[in-house]
Design a protein that fits this description.
The protein has helices at 10-14, 18-36, 47-50, 64-67, 70-84, 126-138, 155-169, 196-210, 222-226, 245-259, 274-283, 313-324, 348-365, 369-375, 379-383, 390-418, 429-438, 483-501, 513-520, 525-546; strands spanning 2-6, 54-61, 87-94, 106-107, 118-121, 143-148, 174-182, 215-218, 264-266, 460-465, 470-473, 477-480, 557-560, 564-567, 572-576. It is an alpha/beta fold and 580 residues long.
Length: 580
């Protein structure tokens, strides 16, 4: 692996302790291991089993006594476990050449007395650009902008934006600290790169330490930082946890052990939505530079005409934010290969990505703290790592998601006020939304008519206790030790397996009649059909007698022609539990 930090002068680097170089090598080795060992790939039917990997790492270091401490190893391994979903076990040996040449990690810049007030991670996206502007314009800070360009197409973007900041506010207001982290040859077998942010945090903290600082900031809006599933097809380990509050807390605790100071890794934009980030850039007089920023995940297919694919969740998020603040003149639609509203989405994954984004926003618009805790329990991972009492933190998160949801749904409403869904091209987002809304399968209604207590607008929670053969739906409908419970448990296992693979919900596979017959222990396809009919009738009756208002309960079990049976992926959330 080629690993370099640029533009630091030799005097600053000479002051770094040896364990900082160890830390660089550890981060590089973790990143290489992550990239070199495949999780199985989306086509692998056993990816659920392969997804979580176990790495045993034995490596030499300059300061073995420090790295062998139980508290240090535990902090390192816990950080990587949460960040990647993988297990890392470290053993450290003494390095044969502890005084190895430092220049292997650094491309030295000219000697200079310039010093920053702050160190910021800079990607060239909207959020990090807004963070740099705020620090320079409002806080009057000099900033070191640490960036990594994973593609040759991104490096010029970062340089242009930083050049514009220097031009407008003075050459001493910011300095670019570029870094290179590239695998040699064809080692990359896994492209999720969940540990890349650990490498970035390490590089940022070493830069801060070289300048005598103890704070590094990642600027990213709070909706992305929360990493709530499902968001489009970004599920489980595929979704980024780079700026999740727990990740930043783990980074901070670990790096304080390494540097023996008050090092902190934070996210000043956690309380902001993407729309508010875009609005901030405009308010601070840099709206004309929005077009120069890049948000797209599909970097390799960017062209001089199309800066953004328009299909990935980042592009969708960006475009909704820009439209909600009516700043589209600074973000031309012809820069997107697929326009948010007017172009067809031919691929099923792309369609579900866009629809899932809107579906979630519709839920978030009116979600209460209790509803968020119930339907997105992983939100508690964030609540417990914010510097606020739990109730205050939960209210802050709910307010953040309410504002995000309102921004997205307002754009959808304005779009459909201009013309009816049928007037938009087939497979376009407005057309797809209109069709799904008409079929009552998309839980999106105008804000004025939303009843926050109407459970029909929320997904159903199906809790499975396999040991007791117990199925509980929304805490009110209980099925135990009967043929309906057995059917739901089998279908729920397939739902969980698909979710674990990171597949798009509407692409969740079905169980064919033969497979289902085998799992249920029945003799024929006809027996399966009767079981399904019985289950549908039972569900409808149980919901009615429990007083639960559920639209079309019979349709919770879908039958897709030529494919088989599954739980409706857009209407349920499955959880495993143990009987109390």
């Amino acid at each position: 692996m080629t690993l370099r930090i640029g533009q630091l002068n030799r005097q600053l680097v000479e002051g770094l302790q040896s364990r900082a170089l160890d830390l660089l090598e550890i981060a590089a080795l973790v990143y290489c291991s992550d990239a070199a060992v495949s999780r199985g790939g989306p086509a692998d039917q056993k990816m659920g089993e392969k997804w979580h990997r176990w790495f045993v790492v034995i490596m030499p270091v300059r300061d073995p006594e420090f790295w062998r401490q139980a508290s240090v190893k535990q902090a390192l391994e816990e950080t990587l476990m949460f960040l990647s979903g993988d297990r890392f076990e470290f053993s450290f040996l003494a390095k044969d050449e502890p005084e190895a040449e430092r220049s292997r990690f650094f491309k030295f810049g000219p000697e200079s007395s310039w010093e920053p007030h702050r160190v910021l991670m800079f990607s060239g996206g909207l959020d990090s650009f807004a963070g740099a502007i705020e620090e320079i314009v409002e806080q009057k800070h000099r900033v070191a902008l640490v960036s990594h360009a994973s593609s040759t197409k991104i490096a010029p973007v970062q340089k242009r934006l930083i050049s514009e900041l220097s031009k407008r506010y003075g050459p001493d207001t910011c300095r670019h600290i570029p870094m290179t982290a590239q695998l040699k040859g064809r080692l990359t077998a896994e492209r999720t790169h969940r540990t890349r942010s650990f490498l970035f945090a390490v590089l940022g903290s070493i830069t801060a330490t070289a300048f005598g600082l103890d704070r590094v900031s990642f600027h990213e809006n709070g909706v992305v930082s929360l990493n709530l599933p499902p968001v489009g097809n970004v599920i489980g380990t595929r979704a980024t946890r780079t700026t999740h509050p727990k990740t930043l807390k783990l980074f901070t605790d670990f790096l304080r052990l390494v540097f023996e100071n008050d090092m902190s890794i934070d996210n000043p934009f956690f309380a902001r939505t993407k729309a508010e980030v875009v609005e901030r850039i405009s308010h601070l007089g840099m709206a004309d530079q929005i077009v120069e920023t890049r948000s797209c995940a599909d970097v390799h297919n960017q062209t001089n005409q199309y800066f953004h694919c328009g299909r990935c969740s980042q592009c969708i998020d960006r475009r909704f934010a820009v439209l909600s603040k009516r700043l589209e003149r600074f973000d031309p639609e012809d820069a997107y290969r697929v326009d948010l509203m007017s172009d067809a989405r031919q691929n099923g994954i792309d369609r579900e990505m866009a629809l899932s984004y809107v579906r979630n926003a519709a839920f978030f618009e009116n979600a209460t703290p209790d509803a968020l805790t119930r339907y997105f329990p992983v939100v508690l991972d964030a609540v417990n790592h914010l510097d606020n009492p739990p109730d205050t933190a939960m209210s802050m998160i709910a307010d953040l998601l309410n504002r995000h949801g309102k921004a997205v749904t307002s754009v959808m409403r304005q779009t459909l006020e201009s013309k009816s869904p049928g007037e938009f091209p087939e497979q376009s987002l407005p057309r797809l939304y209109g069709e799904m809304h008409s079929a009552s399968t998309l839980p999106f209604v105008p804000a004025a008519s939303v009843d926050k207590n109407d459970k029909r607008q929320l997904p159903l929670i199906i809790e499975i206790d396999k040991t007791s053969r117990l199925v509980v739906i929304n805490e009110h409908v209980e099925l135990k030790k009967n043929v309906t419970a057995d059917l739901l448990m089998v279908l729920a296992e397939e739902w969980l397996r698909a979710a674990g693979k990171g597949i798009d919900p509407l692409e969740y596979p079905c169980l064919q009649s033969g497979e289902l017959a085998e799992k249920l222990g029945v003799a024929s396809d006809e027996a399966v059909r009767r079981r399904v009919q019985t289950a549908r009738r039972t569900l409808a009756k149980r919901f009615e007698t429990s007083g639960s208002a559920v639209d079309r309960p019979k349709e919770l079990i879908e039958n897709l022609p030529w494919h088989g049976y599954r739980l409706a992926p857009d209407r349920v959330i499955v959880r495993l539990c143990s009987q109390k």
